[in-house]
Write a structure and sequence with these properties.
Strand order of the largest sheet: 2-1-3-4-5-6
Shape: elongated
CATH topology of the domain at 1-152: Rossmann fold
Number of strands: 13
CATH superfamily of the domain at 1-152: P-loop containing nucleotide triphosphate hydrolases
Number of helices: 13
CATH class of the domain at 1-152: Alpha Beta
Distance between the termini: 43 Å
Strand content: 5-15%
Radius of gyration: 60 Å
Structural class: alpha+beta
Order of helices and strands: EEHEEEEHHHHHHEHEHEHEHEHEHE
Largest sheet: 6 strands, antiparallel
């Protein structure tokens, strides 16, 4: 990456500089000399003013309005001020620039303008186009230049660096090297990764539960479909039986209708015969009456007697005829009845034969229907038995599921307690971070006040009254005492922060060891190792728990807490083996596991803070130094140790 060179500072009405002033900086070393009050320190203030100081107090002003030229003793005060930094921004051999602006020269400008009510308005310009302080800070941070950084060494900074504690000096070195920002990014990325893994584990558990429920519902659906088919078969048999009965009734009705029609035809014929006989009888009676009149005329009295006798005889004859006709009628009726009975017998015999045939057919149909019904009943009984057995299995599964649910709830309670513990430790760490930041801010302000007093002491005339120097010395001693107290507070806060971080690491390790995710991961690891042992998958070296062992058994518990779930990671030779194992686990729903392909792993280093801590008294060393393993898996061990936010193991 190309170098970053400040070519010149362009100032206009800034502090003690009236009008436009340009200060060039040649390549190499440039020095600015002059008597007291000539504006040497104001050049450094102008540089900090554009780069972005923490506050106006660091620029020796109560507010940004006091940075505008006030006119001096006789001049007129200005209404605005402007400072421009001109940087040389060449390309390096790879075509990259230090400042991420595609120009060979970069102008960073900041202006302050007084409003009508005396308020101050600050503006930023990048290459003469409007910009913001955020864009300035992002651009300068990418180039390694900050207004509050140590790339600008002000008066008193060297003395301050020499007199500060080792811990504070180490923090300054980490800040200058950029290690602190990387450590913060690593912690943030690890927190996001932990959340993603937690979400993935919850999704996996939910997916397994849904799959089990789908299997149970599929079995119940098959049983319900079988029961519905049996029910439809039974309804079909019932409909067939009712249809056969209906046909039998229709045939009987047709037979009775035919018999009734025959009887009506016969009755009409008999009525015609009776009517003809009555007419013939009337004609015979008329002839007899005429013969009787002729006899009465011929015979006279004897004829009357004979007529009376004849009448008596006729009456008797009629009576006997009536009796004969009655008997004949009885005989005829008996014959008719016999014929009718014979005909009815024949018809009844025919109907009986037809009925017997239809009865045999109905019986055959009924027998077949009963057989079908019996078969349907047997199938229904088998279905009911299957349903009963299925209910028993479902009941047993429900009991097992209930026990598993209770176990999961207990484990979840333990996990929740561990999560609460982790949350409490995290809040404690954040609180200590905030407290440490507040203390550092107070310390910086105290240092700035001390520097201002030192500058004021240097600028005092030698002929100034002794009383002022005494007051300044007393104020300086008070501020130094306050600084020492703040340094002690910072040291105590850092110790509390380190203890809280160690507690947080232990709590996270305990959470990983007790969480339900270990169960699914252990099952997946066992399955992959089984594939390796059976020879189905080649290139699986083993899990970290198999390939690593503590050199000293006394460090075993500390290493287990520190590495946590990383002990279940599986080391493979290449990413193809890892992809093959992942595909097998997904296909067989055997859980999930973390794979470390040796051909994809990159060398990683420990954070600057961890290196500093490892040198303190009472620290045994890094976890990677306390483990015994083959050199071929060194990259895998370093990745597991560093991915767990590993701190040095302390006694």
């Amino acid at each position: 990456m190309g170098y970053l060179h400040l070519k010149e500072i362009q100032m206009e009405n800034f502090k003690s500089f009236k009008g436009e002033v340009v200060i060039p900086f040649e390549v190499g070393f440039t020095g600015i000399t002059g008597p007291n009050g000539s504006g040497k320190s104001n050049c450094g203030d102008a540089l900090q003013f554009v780069l972005g100081a923490k506050s106006s107090k660091s620029l020796r002003a109560e507010n940004v309005g006091q940075l505008i030229f006030n006119g001096g003793n006789r001049g007129k005060a200005a209404k605005n001020c402007k400072v421009t930094l001109v940087f040389d921004n060449p390309k390096d051999t790879s075509g990259n620039r230090r400042l991420k602006v595609d120009t060979d020269e970069v102008l960073l400008t900041r202006t302050v303008r007084l409003g009508r009510k005396g308020n101050s308005n600050s503006s930023y310009y990048l290459n003469e186009r409007p910009s913001t302080a955020t864009e300035f800070r992002r651009l300068l941070t990418g180039a390694g230049a900050r207004g509050d950084g140590y790339n600008i060494v002000l008066q008193g900074d060297v003395t301050h660096l020499a007199t500060m504690t080792d811990r504070a000096r180490r923090k300054v070195l980490e800040d200058v090297a950029g290690v602190t920002s990387y450590d913060d990014e690593i912690r943030k990325a690890n927190r996001q990764r932990d959340k993603v893994e937690q979400y993935l584990e919850q999704i996996t558990l939910l997916e397994d539960e849904i799959n089990k429920r789908i299997k149970t519902l599929s079995k119940e659906r098959e049983q319900a479909m079988k029961y519905r088919e049996l029910q439809e078969t039974l309804e079909t048999a019932r409909r067939t039986l009712m249809h056969s009965r209906h046909r039998s009734r229709l045939e009987e009705i047709e037979l009775v209708t035919d018999e009734r029609g025959n009887y009506i035809v016969r009755l009409s014929g008999i009525g015609e015969e009776i009517e003809a006989d009555n007419k013939q009888e009337l004609s015979i009676e008329d002839e007899l009456a005429g013969i009787q009149r002729q006899l009465n005329e011929v015979l006279g009295d004897d004829g009357k007697k004979l007529g009376d006798q004849q009448r008596r005889l006729e009456v008797e004859v009629e009576t006997r005829k009536d009796r004969i006709s009655g008997l004949k009628e009885d005989i005829d009726d008996a014959g008719d009845e016999q014929e009718v009975l014979a005909a009815e017998q024949i018809e009844a015999q025919q109907a009986l034969t037809a009925h017997e045939e239809s009865l045999d057919s109905a019986r055959h149909t009924l027998k077949k229907a009963e057989e079908d019904l019996q078969g349907a009943a047997e199938v229904e009984e088998e279905a009911r038995s299957a349903l009963d057995s299925g209910d028993k299995v479902v009941h047993e599964l429900n009991r097992a599921f209930g026990k598993a649910t209770e176990s999961v709830e207990k484990t979840q309670d333990v996990a929740n307690k561990a999560i609460l513990k982790v949350g409490a430790e995290t809040q404690n760490v954040e609180f200590l971070h905030q407290q440490l930041a507040d203390l550092e801010t107070s310390l910086d302000e105290s240092r700035l006040n001390r520097d201002d007093l030192l500058l004021q002491g240097e600028e005092l005339d030698a002929n100034a009254p002794e009383q002022d120097r005494t007051k300044l010395a007393q104020e300086l001693a008070r501020i130094q005492r306050q600084e020492r107290g703040l340094l002690d507070d910072v040291q105590r806060s850092e110790e509390q922060l380190r203890d809280a971080e160690m507690s947080l690491v232990r709590a996270r390790g305990e959470l990983e060891n007790r969480s339900g995710s270990n169960t699914g991961m252990a099952r997946a690891v066992k399955a992959v190792l089984g594939l390796r042992d059976s020879g189905e998958v080649r290139g699986v070296l083993g899990s970290m728990s198999e390939l690593c062992a503590p050199k000293d058994s006394r460090d075993e518990e500390a290493l287990a807490y520190a590495m946590g779930g990383g002990m279940n990671s599986i080391v493979v030779r290449d990413d193809e083996t890892a992809a093959q194992c992942i595909s097998w686990l997904r296909k067989n729903k055997a859980g999930r596991a973390t794979f470390l392909p040796l051909n994809r792993l990159q060398s990683r280093r420990s954070g600057g803070r961890a290196v500093m801590v490892s040198r303190e008294p009472g620290v045994v060393g890094f976890a990677s130094d306390l483990l015994e393993y083959d050199n071929s898996i060194e990259l895998a061990v370093m990745n597991v140790v560093l991915s767990q936010q590993m701190l040095p193991v302390a006694t």
